[in-house]
Amino acid sequence: MNLTPAMQNFILHWGEMGTKWGVNRSVAQIHALLHIAPEPMTAEDISETLNLARSNVSTALKELQGWKLVKASRQLGDRRDHFTSVRDMFDLVTVVVEGRREREFLPTIEALREVAKDAETDATPAKIKARMAETLDTMEMFDKWYQDISRLSRPVQMSLIKLGGRIARFLPKSD
């Protein structure tokens, strides 16, 4: 695949975003390439297009598959795997948000529950216990909100997103 300057910039920027999210730059660049590629690509195609070592590409593809961001498929007459990114942007965002929830948010809630339990039996001052409880309550509230929203149909979710900040018109004014 020949990359235009715009395609190169897209891939480079996605790689930079990846490093800010804690993802290896080449992993993010491979994901960006697969995201914009019109057809599935083999690991060799990816390696050649991005000028990356084949071993680096293989490792990155396994990581992306583990996150459910990339899928492998086979084509008749070709023994190689062909890779594609999740094509639908709404689905892609959902996969990313759910993955981060599972890997980061839920373990933090669980850790906060344990800390709060420990604080009940040790000498943690009351004000600090209250702050810990507030932190846990707020995180659990956001997680419950997320779970409630994720159960809604996609059209309803899209309507809510499009409604955005305009919903504030229906809420009481705050001081």
UniProtKB/TrEMBL annotation:
Keywords for the protein's UniProt record, in alphabetical order: DNA-binding, Transcription, Transcription regulation
Location of the HTH marR-type domain: 22-80
MF (Gene Ontology): DNA binding; DNA-binding transcription factor activity
InterPro entries the record matches: ArsR-like_HTH (IPR011991), HTH-GbsR_regulator (IPR052362), HTH_MarR-typ (IPR000835), MJ1563 (IPR026282), WH-like_DNA-bd_sf (IPR036388), WH_DNA-bd_sf (IPR036390)
The keyword Glycosyltransferase is assigned to this record: no
Family: Belongs to the GbsR family.
PANTHER family to which the protein is assigned, alphabetical: HTH-TYPE TRANSCRIPTIONAL REGULATOR MJ1563-RELATED
Protein name: HTH-type transcriptional regulator
Organism: Actibacterium lipolyticum
